[in-house]
Amino acid sequence: KQGIFHLLFSFSLTGILSAIGNGYVIYMTIKRKTKLKPPELMTVNLAIFDFGISVTGKPFFVVSSFSHRWLFGWNGCRFYGWTGFFFGCGSLITMTVVSLDRYLKICHLRYGTWLKRHHTFICLAFVWAYSIFWATMPLVGWGNYAPEPFGTSCTLDWWLAQATVSGQSFVMAMLFFCLILPAGIIVFSYVMIIYKVKSSSKEVSHYDARIKNNHNLEIKLTKVAMLICAGFLTAWIPYAVVSVVSAFGEPDSVPIPVSVVPTLLAKSSAMYNPIIYQLVGLKCPFSSSCCKVMKKQKHFRQTSHLLPAVKYSSSHL
């Protein structure tokens, strides 16, 4: 019992830190008077989804865990399952869009420079619509939400795959469109980025200072995005594996104590992003990797008239 208490206390602390960290990002966004850059818009959208996971899911789980049973009834179970899946799916699809943006900016400059702020809003609208669609499907008859095996939280009813053909199609569609496809796009994007950066490092060294600054900005943004995606996938893939085994394996193939750990790891994923911002040395009031580098670019533009050679080369780009 003492070990369970310590585990729940740690999880509660994780939820509080996650809400504070992501809430701070949202607060600083509201406080800002200038327009947000596209990477900053993506960061804020990710913070909103992570904040949603923290404030709508964790309190229900913690309170029920202390009571050793689900306390909020069937409608509460469906609400908890919907919010958890909606915000989790939204986070993953946001990271997928970010990875594609990084891929275009680094590997296909022609398309990367074409992407503007209004394109970002279109992408964010797609993220929200995509997440709402898949999270709502279980509420309208295709699939369902059900309690977890340990009985103190709710999730997608993976066990429908063993009951009906409709249940199998539901589980397979969710796995493909809400995990395998987004994760595949993320992995492909960053593998191609790594290859491109390695192959073009010598070429970039011959560019003038402004192009180098822009290139360094894109690389820094890409590193942050890679860390965020790696943290998310590390947290959620064990849970996905356990869910697949439960859906298509033998009944009780996953012991209840084993299923608890991946669930707790997945539910703690919302805390990682504010920590990542600090690990990469972001000291700005707004938690976006643009800030520090953009300040350097501004300083360069203000002093560029002192550098005739740079001014001459940049005027011919």
Distance between the termini: 67 Å
Radius of gyration: 22 Å
CATH fold name: Rhopdopsin 7-helix transmembrane proteins
- The percentage of residues in β strands lies in under 5%
Largest sheet: 2 strands, antiparallel
The assigned structural class equals mainly alpha
Low-confidence stretches: 281-317
Q: Please trace the helix and strand order, writing H or E for each element.
A: HHHHHHEEHHHHHH
At the fourth CATH level, what is the homologous superfamily?
A: Rhodopsin 7-helix transmembrane proteins
Membrane topology: Multi-pass membrane protein
Transmembrane segments: 6-30, 42-67, 79-100, 121-142, 170-195, 224-249
Domain G-protein coupled receptors family 1 profile: 21-277
GO cellular component, one term: plasma membrane
Secondary structure elements and their pairing?
Blueprint: H1 2-31, H2 38-56, H3 58-67, H4 73-107, H5 109-114, H6 117-136, E1 145-147, E2 154-156, H7 165-204, H8 209-248, H9 256-267, H10 272-279, H11 290-303, H12 308-315
Helix pairs in contact: 1-2, 1-3, 1-10, 2-4, 2-6, 4-6, 4-7, 4-8, 7-8, 8-9, 8-10, 8-11
